[in-house]
Amino acid sequence: MKLKLLLVPTIASLLSFTAQADEAAGKMAYMICSACHNADGQGLPLGDKMMAPSLVGSKIVTGDPSLLALVILKGIKKEGAEYMGMMASLEMAYPDDQKLADVMSYVRQSFGNTAAAVTAEDVAKFRVQWQDIKEPVSRAKLAELLGAE
Ligand code: HEC
To answer: Is the separation of the CB atoms in 56 and 37 below 8 Å?
Structure first.
């Protein structure tokens, strides 16, 4: 009985430690993105322009996670001069499924976003789903995929 009482708080603290570690891993994996999207997710201002758009409330970030994976893995075709930066393919930067899941979960659950977390198993499926796409996706294609959700 005494042992059981001791174990309950130990398990509880282990669980909360895991949750914190995940957020820390996400924050770490997000460092690449923050170069353009800023630490607060709102996009880094550069003079009177922006490096990249805000990720706050973005449908690509908070909607079907396969689209977020598509954008990170393949990038977005640069079609205008609205942003100083470019959303290049980051497939090489995230060879590890868990690391990509960490960064996806982080952007979906930070900056006021409240979408569900993504697992390494999900990421493995998204890699297969988009394996035939070899170049950055156009905004038109993204809009079409968003509409099909
Ligand atoms: C070198 C700069 C740069 C880096 C690094 C970068 N992005 Fe981007 N990102 C952009 C730019 C620029 C756009 C807008 C692309 C366009 O429309 O031409 C963009 C667009 C996006 C979008 C689409 C947002 C919307 O709603 O339209 C998402 C999602 C996104 N980035 C997520 C990420 C994530 C997550 C990372 C890190 C894994 C990341 N980006 C790293 C520059 C960057």
So the answer is: no
pLDDT in tens for each of the 149 residues of the chain? Answer: 556 666 666 655 555 555 455 889 999 999 999 999 999 999 999 999 999 999 999 999 999 999 999 999 999 999 999 999 999 999 999 999 999 999 999 999 999 999 999 999 999 999 999 999 999 999 999 999 999 86
In terms of C-beta density within 10 A (0-12 exposed, 13-18 middle, 19 or more buried), how is residue 80 classed? exposed
Q: Is the beta carbon of 36 within 6 A of some atom in ligand 1?
A: yes
State whether the beta carbon of 67 lies less than 6 angstroms from ligand 1. no
- Of the candidate CATH numbers 3.40.1010.10, 2.170.270.10, 1.10.760.10, 3.40.50.2000, the domain formed by 22-147 belongs to 1.10.760.10
